[in-house]
Amino acid sequence: MQKQPTIRDVAQAAGVSVAVVSRVLNPGSGPVAALTRSKVSDAMETLGYHPRTAARELKHGPPTTLGLLLADVSNPFFAHLADLVVQEAHSRGIQVLLMTTQEDDRLESERLATLIERRVSGIIATPTGNNLEIWKKLQDLGTGVVFVDRSIPEMPEVDVVSINNVESARSATALMAAHGHRRIAIISGPATSTTGRDRVAGYQEALREAGLAEDRTLIRSAAFRGTSGGDAVTALLNLQDRPTALVVANTAQVTAVLRRLAHAGISIPDELSVVVFEDSPWTELMTPPLTIIRQPIDMLARHSVQLALSNANGTTTGKPTTVRVDAELVERSSVVAPKTA
Amino acid sequence: MQKQPTIRDVAQAAGVSVAVVSRVLNPGSGPVAALTRSKVSDAMETLGYHPRTAARELKHGPPTTLGLLLADVSNPFFAHLADLVVQEAHSRGIQVLLMTTQEDDRLESERLATLIERRVSGIIATPTGNNLEIWKKLQDLGTGVVFVDRSIPEMPEVDVVSINNVESARSATALMAAHGHRRIAIISGPATSTTGRDRVAGYQEALREAGLAEDRTLIRSAAFRGTSGGDAVTALLNLQDRPTALVVANTAQVTAVLRRLAHAGISIPDELSVVVFEDSPWTELMTPPLTIIRQPIDMLARHSVQLALSNANGTTTGKPTTVRVDAELVERSSVVAPKTA
DNA sequence: TTGTAAGCGTTATCAT
DNA sequence: ATGATAACGCTTACAA
């Protein structure tokens, strides 16, 4: 186990001062003679020198790391988002500290404390909805905060990047209505989440447009974690006047819902038409291939990183930005006209 | 945008010296009077003080971050691994820097350079197979290096955590043989990867045990990225003597394979029995439910973190550790006896 | 063009 | 029990 050479070792080996080494390390920070430069480079090479990030950051170096705080990474949607955020960040020379909250605001506050201590330049997060004060503080500190996928209504000053939740749920529901369904159910995220609320709003809008009456028993919100989606299905199936169509607007609960449906022996789309908010490749491999709402995750990733970085150092342009990208309804074969009973 | 208070500000506000503040920050580092402690705590509270990690690390503080270098995080297997690694690390107060290589050794070397500069205490990685010198250097530097899922044969000195690839492929193949299949194909990872080679070895072993002759045309290695799995399927289907069973041992190519199979109108398991190395929930939702090899990802995550951390600071116990956990063959409905032609 | 030296925010060693 | 003060490795005026 060898000891790490410092800038001083390099300077000595090259027969110059540390200032010169620093200059070749940071091109543009000052003049260096070509010959000197190569001598220094050689020294760095032979010594196997690597500048220490911690020291650089301490000396008000531009913070080069970004926090990515997600609910969890097992969820394919978040996994894909993480993948793209990392790629996008790397292409800008930024590193990503990955953290998860498990939808637990207690854990969230701990993670945020760590992020504060690290003085990350920005944070891209799916907030639990609490810890308002900490988020505020982060912004005051000049951290670029961006909420992705969801937001916190009480915090309109934070930038948000998400799909148009209202519109996507509306289009999914409208598709059902267009096929002649009159009893359309929705399983959404918890009512405390903006995605949950917005998607239900879109659903209601579609109902209104189709001249359909709203039935509260057909609106089920399921927690993101656990198997709440399955229970929602069971509840729906136990209704005396069962729905003929179902919009699964809670991405984290899609497999739980489908599993319960399969278990109950419900045949899709004969007994139940289905649209899910989930665009993993496997949705196309199902029998029948599922009609889905596809989220442009690459757009979400790109905008999140860009905003987080541009908001860093309090370079906030004043009014908060809200990026709302359109999701795409991909029609496959899980929606058909209801059986006339 | 407020300025961040330093330890000096706290000291001043509390009317003590910085040394005292540092002591209350690091309990056990020295005596502090109870009254003093509370005064300091109050000052920290009202000022909203957070110690700066960069400064602490500079002052030979225990490195508290770990690098997780994966091929990509879109792959559900890696995503799940990342999720659990993060959880495990957090439970030990360690942070995780997430990076991806896209299976590109050029990118890998860049990421590794960054990790060296950050002086991370450990790295958990799915190596591309190259950059041998850098990996060696990392170890010399006292970084705890752990290869997960795959390994590099030329680097027996590095700890490895993976499933028993030989045995899992053997059991999957043996299942086919037990059902009476005689033409069993396998689509594995590239021959340059240890997982690819090991799984093929297990496949061959099972063939031998079943007294079946090996047919080279039934062994297809597909790259991890892209849609190479689909091409392998097509090649297999074009054989004049088609296989009646297929082991998909390349996790990253499972959906590509299934998609091509569906596209070709091959019915599972009637025309082709299938076992896949992939345990995402959706495999159970397919028609028919897929027989799979389930990897105990939680074990992989736990051991990886533990090893990476214990190997840090050159605390290497001498001989490298190899943790090989057993994968589980979960029989569902995608394997049946071959149709007697 | 290059060198000197003063920080950056902590921790740790001595004194007091 | 508390306080000065010297590092830690790097950047950056300011000199030379």
From TrEMBL, chains A, B:
<keyword id="KW-0805">Transcription regulation</keyword>
<dbReference type="GO" id="GO:0003700">
    <property type="term" value="F:DNA-binding transcription factor activity"/>
</dbReference>
<dbReference type="GO" id="GO:0000976">
    <property type="term" value="F:transcription cis-regulatory region binding"/>
</dbReference>
<keyword id="KW-0238">DNA-binding</keyword>
<keyword id="KW-0804">Transcription</keyword>
<dbReference type="InterPro" id="IPR010982">
    <property type="entry name" value="Lambda_DNA-bd_dom_sf"/>
</dbReference>
<keyword id="KW-0678">Repressor</keyword>
<dbReference type="Pfam" id="PF00356">
    <property type="entry name" value="LacI"/>
</dbReference>
<dbReference type="InterPro" id="IPR028082">
    <property type="entry name" value="Peripla_BP_I"/>
</dbReference>
<dbReference type="InterPro" id="IPR000843">
    <property type="entry name" value="HTH_LacI"/>
</dbReference>
<dbReference type="InterPro" id="IPR046335">
    <property type="entry name" value="LacI/GalR-like_sensor"/>
</dbReference>
<protein>
    <submittedName>
        <fullName>Transcriptional regulator, LacI family</fullName>
    </submittedName>
</protein>
<dbReference type="Pfam" id="PF13377">
    <property type="entry name" value="Peripla_BP_3"/>
</dbReference>
<feature type="domain" description="HTH lacI-type">
    <location>
        <begin position="5"/>
        <end position="60"/>
    </location>
</feature>
